[in-house]
Structure of NmrA family protein:
Amino acid sequence: MTTTGTTLVIGATGTTGSRTTAQLTAAGHRVKAGSRRALPVAGAEPVAFDWYEPATHAAALDGVDRVYLVPPVGDYDPATVMLPFLRRARAAGVHRAVLLSSSAIPAGGPAVGAVHQALPGLFEQWAVLRPSWFMQNFTGAHAHADSIRREGVIRTATGDGRVAFVDADDIAAVAVHALTDDTAPGTDLVLTGPETLSHDDIAATVTKVTGRPVVHHQLTYEQMRDHLTAHVPAEFAAMLAGLDRAIAQGSEDRVTDTVQRLTGRPARTFRALLESLRRHGS
């Protein structure tokens, strides 16, 4: 790996951004940690960054040659704000960009798929991370985790569909490689955990490891869409419910070796994550 250059991590206080920042700084890389309120991040230079406030962009990009891109949350058309920023970043001297997308969204697909499609035309050095669904959705601040804590319930329209849930720490480890290796991947990388699980399996594992009863309530597409509309814009809720429906049809029932191939270690299992959190009192 090269240790030269400065990386702007956008969303540096979020699920993957915080972990990517921590792993970069631990390895001795210079990092500007971008967040709306420029919150302090250990080992990094905090900087204000808001996708919807272009006045924050110049200072965030100053002295930066690579960038980790976390799209604005809940925006059905993030290309509207992301592409002008990326053109500005290129003009400011950024030569490598790593975009966080999703295994469910191909290049040219909805939402961040348009940014994925445009990225190779903007930067010679690039990668798109397409992780499966996060394990941390069941342990952090996600609606699933909140529902588990409050009600002991997970609600989805995934039926018996299986997903190779991936640990956000593994996503960050791949991001660090994509940002700092001498040669950028120049492709999209589908990231998964080591096994596929249904949401019934997730509920059973949480119950077994934590001792707290958790059940999976299977909803229809329409029920899930309406449930999500209470929390996010209707168009985005319909897209998310549609992703659940695709899972029910087998869209996420696959395992890749990307984490092991790029990091040299196996991807963590969901049970191992829960047991680690239990040991550390989380």
